Amino acid sequence: MGKSLDTYARDKYGFAKYELEGYPMAKNLRAKIPATDSLVIYDRNTEATRRFAEEVGIAASSAGAPGKATGIEVAGSPREVAEKSETIITVLPEPSHVKMVFHGLLEPVLPKTSTQERLFIDCSTIDPTSSREVANAVHCTEQGRFVDAPMSGGVVGARAGTLTFMLGASSKTGALVERVKPILTLMGRRVVHLGEQGAGLSGKLANNYLLAINNIATAEAMNLGIKWGLHPKVLGDMINSSTGRCWSSEVNNPVPGVIESSPASRDYDGGFGVSLMKKDLKLAIAAAKEAGARLELAERAREIYEATEAKHAGKDFSVVYRWLGGKE
What is the pLDDT of residues 20-72, one digit of tens each? Predict the structure, then answer.
């Protein structure tokens, strides 16, 4: 990791989350930081906050209970999280949420931290342009440093602590990257520094565009083979030992029963929601147009996810197999 955990003794971490991945990420962070460190959390979902508090051992009947014995404090707003923290991690759904939350964080000007410069790590998946706007607001007002660090691995990876983070951060001195990496590895397995601020999001959107296409192709291929009379599990095993192998076939196979741990085997519950894939695909299409990059399959894929969401809202995005009329 580059530095021992003792380097971060008595640090103050903050976590503002509206996304499913944020819950297990915060749990892993609290479990791995030194006991002397504090963690301030906020989630607009009060039920999620209550459940988090119970699981980490806070005996509380209200969201306002401090839970200081466990080094965790439940905040009443994102602003309170930032005021009480030196490192603030945000996981938010949309560009509008990120802009709204950071507007509340930065105005009025935050009080200075007692030790090191405040660090904002945004793990949201938004467009690079919006992220750069927020970063500019943080840096121009001299309220800290801002990096983008979207992740790959979904809820399953967040729970297991196996996430891959795509980091966009200034490398002028190297100090910022070296400060951020050990923090992210507390919640994941790998950190890839892709370049300057915004580069992490560019990498994430390229990855998720490929994932969107792979998911549809896997569902179509599995449906095709099954229609020809092939056994689903045998077909899946063959693909996963052949050139068609991909994450959508090996880990998140869209056919129920092929991979017991996949959302498809739980009626497509949990996992990466079809609405989130539709959102990420929309962001990738917009960013590609801005960059002048051709995406020949993008519009048809977008239509498929819109149609799938209309019939199967709230399900994992592999439910596209059900939308295709695949046998279950």
Answer: 678 889 889 988 988 888 889 898 888 877 777 777 755 333 344 444 446 78
Look at residue 70 in the predicted model and tell me its pLDDT. 61
Report whether pLDDT(237) > 90: yes
Catalytically annotated residues: 204
CA distance 320 to 328: 12
Q: How far is CA 14 from CA 30, 93, 211, 284, 294, in A?
A: 10, 18, 31, 29, 39
3-state class (DSSP) for residue 184: helix
316 within 8 A of 270, measured Cβ to Cβ: yes
Dihedral, 45, 51, 56, 60 alpha carbons, nearest 10: 90
Strand partners, 190: 164
- The model's pLDDT over 67-107, given as tens digits with 9 standing for 90+, comes to 444 678 888 999 999 999 999 999 998 999 999 999 999 99
**Residue 125 CB partners (closer than 8 Å, separation 6+):** 150, 201, 204, 205, 208, 276, 279, 280, 283
pTM, two decimal places: 0.87
Nearest CA-CA partner of 280 in 259, 253, 309, 254: 309
Report pLDDT for 9.
37
